[in-house]
Amino acid sequence: MPEEAEGTAAVPTREIRDFLRRRREQIAQRWSDEPVFRTVFTLSRDEAVEAGKAVVDALAQVADAARVEDPDAAGFTAVREQLARMGAARSRAGLSTAQVSSELAALRPPVENLLVSDLPEDATAEHVRACVTTLSVLMGTLRVVVMQTALSEGQALIDRQRLQLLEVATPVIKLWDGIVAVPLIGTLDSARSQVVMETLLESVVEQQARYAILDITGVPTVDSLVAQHLMKTVAAARLMGAECIVSGIRPAIAQTMVHLGLDLGTVVTRASLADALGYVLHQLGVGIVTPGTNGAVAR
Amino acid sequence: MHTAAGSQARLPIRSDMDLVWVRQHVRQAAAQLGFGLVDQTKLVTAASELARNTLVYGGGGTMETEPLVEGTTHGLRLTFSDDGPGIPDLEQALSDGFTSGDGLGMGLGGARRLVHEFGIESAPGSGTTVRVTSWVGRPPRPREES
Fold first, then answer.
1. pLDDT reading at B29 higher than 70
2. Are A106 and A178 within 8 A, CB to CB?
3. Which of A191, A220, A224 sits opposite B110 (nearest CB)?
4. A99-116 pLDDT per residue, tens
5. pLDDT in tens, A168-200
6. Which residue spans adopt a coiled-coil conformation according to this UniProt entry (chain B) (predicted)?
7. pLDDT beyond 80 at A296
8. Interface with chain B: mutation pick from A224, A232, A250, highest number of B CBs within 10 Å
9. CATH class of the domain comprising B10-135
10. For A148-152, A268-272, B18-22, which range has the lowest pLDDT when averaged over its residues?
């Protein structure tokens, strides 16, 4: 009984495989006019046809393995990258996931028409239906493969960008001999504050800095967790012999911190980075002299 | 009571990323209703504290925003709810410096000082709901003696 069932199931897939191989050229020609091929392979029509042929070959290989329902079938491996490129290009063109999906669905009717006209005239209705169903399933699986690839591409992109943000957003700037500054920008969550602390402590050693300025002008919200991160960073820097100054506390932030009950305690704070630099230079005994006057000393 | 500028919204709080979205949403809604910069910052900070509590102690939940109108005054109500373990002792939880985690213990009490109206419902095992409301242009609540 199982063998029998397998036998009848295998016939349509073999038929589809043979059909796909036989009509490879025509299918690819018809597909090359569909938006999902035409708009991605813009160099020439031949390029689109070639891409179409590659997909047809993949489908034939999947049918050959009788795995028409399996998006992980080995046959798709060869075209996975190409399919991802097609899906990504359509998304970039501003199409929603549903629109991309329906564009892919539009690839089915041309093949189906070709298949029906290709079947021998004496084929039973049941046989025709079985073949059409198998083809539909195969095309559905193709759609799943494209969407799956596009989604995992998107996830990979998000992961990459998250890593980039961690790195990019925490430059340590040397302002003067022994003075470094970190302009903090954006949300200071636990992961980022960890990176800030590490880069700051490293640069304290590297630059032999005695003063480190943490500028929070670019941090939109200072809540208790952000304050806690700041204080931990300050405490760590202090252990390494560097004094920290927190600057860039805007009026709205200052009022909010008071209401929230946050106390930065012994941390020196200044309204702006310039004030902080002035304070540190003064501490180091460095004066700033304006030419023409007899010398104004930094605050 | 009917909804004013901006619309009612319900945001999930499931991850750190959602907290960013909560803050941005509250800031936009508050700005749209005409809150000044200081009041925007206060409300956003309170939302940040409460949303983090929802995430960390409540195991995730939702925030609902609701614009209000009372006479000619506009306001914004934020409701944070979770199905977490609940808070056994509200009095203690609201006091500064108390934390059951490793935070500063300023979140709940601090958030109460940042808004005009503050309500909390919680019981062990039945989750926590915190409802805060702020009004445009109303002077800050006098600080209670503690």
1. yes
2. no
3. A224
4. 888 888 888 888 888 888
5. 667 889 999 999 999 988 877 777 788 888 889
6. none
7. no
8. A224
9. alpha beta
10. A148-152
Residue A2, pLDDT above cutoff 80: no
Question: Contact at 8 Å (CB) between B40 and B30?
Answer: yes
Determine the distance in angstroms separating the CA of A18 from the nearest CA of chain B, rounded to an integer.
50
Residue boundaries of the structural domains of chain B? 10-135
* The one-letter amino acid at A174: K
Asked if the interface predicted TM-score (ipTM) of this complex is over 0.95, the answer is no
| ∠ Cα A195 A200 A206 (to 5°) | 130
Q: The tokens of B1 are what?
A: 């009571």
Pair of tokens at residue A187? 């949300």
Interatomic CA distance for residues B49 and B96, integer angstroms: 13
Query: B113 to chain A: which residues are within 8 Å by CB?
Result: 259-261
Does residue B28 contact residue B40 with C-beta atoms inside 8 Å? no
Q: For chain A, how many residues are written?
A: 299
A205 Cβ neighbours under 8 A, 6+ residues apart: A240
Which domains, and CATH codes, for chain A?
Answer: 2-163 (1.10.490.10), 173-284 (3.30.750.24)
